[in-house]
Amino acid sequence: MSTPAKRHGFTLFELLAVVGLMAVVVAVAVGGLRGSGAGAARDAAVALLGSRVAEARQLAASRGEPVRLLVCNDPALPEFFLRRVVLAVPDGSGWRAIDGGSLLPAGIVVLPAVALATSGPGAVRRAGDDWTRGSGGALRSTALTPYTESGTEPAILGTTRWLMARFSATGGTSSGDLVVATGRRRDEAVPVTVVCEQPDNVAGLSLSAYGVATFLRGRAEF
After folding, report:
1. Spatial CA neighbour of 183 closest among 173, 199, 194
2. In DSSP terms, which residues pair with 176 in a beta bridge?
3. If I label 105, which of 3, 37, 41, 208 is the partner at 20 to 30 A Cα–Cα?
């Protein structure tokens, strides 16, 4: 009687799962080793983003279809603006969120995909602050693009105003950065204006084309 052949090595999904788990562990460790106050909140936000990136990669590989990581970009939703992070999967001709999303710590936002303006509404910078990247150009989340590319994408959780990072069916993505910074609401007006501060103390993730995240801290590292 023959015995089943032994399987050697790991499947692609198993490897992605291991890498994703390592990313989460590292993210939590980084958040726990930093100081207190705004710096700790930024690091907690990076840990959250790291876990959602790992989850997106694993979900894409397990389902064998694309996944999108979404960041709320709707200034009409002050509580969620640049703080709500959602994963979405294909649903017919559109996309649907897999859950209600995750919320970054209060006072911390993901920088948008465009350079910060000096007037609102939206995310703005203070006059005189230097928001250039250490490698040149404006400091921004280069891994994100607008969700409504064609103008026909359906609303997700009540809005079409999202920024997104795409993950392919194998977990790959477009290389770029996800940058988090201190952001405070200017006043009670809606649409909201969020003033981003402390450009030298930003933190975030650099994503490779394989969806692997590297942790960065400080403006000079971007």
Report:
1. 194
2. 207
3. 208
Could you give the 3-state DSSP secondary structure of residue 1?
coil
Work out the burial of residue 100: count CB atoms within 10 Å of its CB; fewer than 13 is exposed, 13-18 middle, 19 or more buried: exposed
**What is the number of other CB atoms lying within 10 angstroms of the CB of residue 93?**
8
In a domain, 41, yes or no: yes
Over the stretch 23-49, which tens digit does the pLDDT of each residue have?
444 444 444 444 457 899 999 999 999
Q: In terms of pLDDT, which residue wins out, 219 or 150?
A: 219
Which domain does 80 fall in, by range?
12-221
Query: Coil, helix or strand for 173?
Result: strand
* Percentage of the chain exceeding pLDDT 70: 83
Q: What is the C-alpha separation between 114 and 95, in angstroms, rounded?
A: 24
Residue pair 172/210 in contact by the 8 Å Cβ criterion: yes
Residue 2 lies in a domain: no
Using 50, 70 and 90 to split pLDDT, how confident is the model at 153?
confident
Domain count, the chain: 1
Is 6 within a domain? no
Rounded CA separation 162/92 (Å): 19
Give me the mean pLDDT over the 87-100 stretch: 95
